[in-house]
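Recap from last week: sequence in, structure out.
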Amino acid sequence: MIKTHNKKIYRVAALFLLSACFLMSCGQKKNEESSSASPSPVTVKEDNAQESAQSVDDDPPEIPKEYYYLSMDSSVGLCDYSALTYHVIDTSVTEEELNEKMDETLDYFNNVLWLNVSEVTDELVKQYYQYESVEELKKAYYEVIKEKKDKEAIAAYKEEIIKTLVEGSDVLVDLTDESAEYYNSLMAHYKALAFAEGLTVSEYAAQKLGIGEEELETTVAADALELAKRKKIILAVAEAEGYMVTQGEYNLRVADYMEYYGYTDEAAFKNDFSEDFINENMLMDITIDNLLAKAEPVESE
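Predicted structure tokens:
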């Protein structure tokens, strides 16, 4: 029971990280079913922004500047996100990378299987890897390396556009409660990791992270606030664009969520995570996918 409990804690923390686009594979699928014909955001000037905020809240937040879009509850002012860019990463597979994989294969033959061979041959590949030749094995390695590099590049592109979006936008309300949820989940994550190692959180922080427990708590608090801010801003973009989670999108992504977090039973997955929570995270994924699809690639210097 203890191991199961800690596994669940770890998954909750990890799924919270998903909210900040610390990305998982399902977020890299194209949003084929969300609306592409969305309402155009409008520029909200200071006077109009304050007037609209007054209708929502008797004590509205101060609107410090002009925004490309002001959320309906006046909690978020968005920058112009229609011209986001990301720097292209070279994801080509080099000969050196392929040779390294072949060296690992030779090492496997000699140090694990104890074959004492000097090279990887077609016969060995047929016998132990079920490919017809060394060239086929190299092609398989190529695909694996390329897929990994492509996924890492997409994650980097998403992180870059999110940073630009967050830096240019403002959250106009206090995020204490929202960040507290992230803080508790992240600390539960570290407690689970420490428990798995037979350590206290303080010992884990010192031995594994090289910091004191107080510094860990300070760092986690800052990360939690950043996660809460990102979530608020990304959902404001979803509101501005009219994005939603369709049933088809839900079915597509929930299968990926389950696979990523090790669930085979959808009922068990939904028991651990509420439908609202899953939908919110999916909506964030959809929004980020669309932002990336519309962003302009620029060559890295």
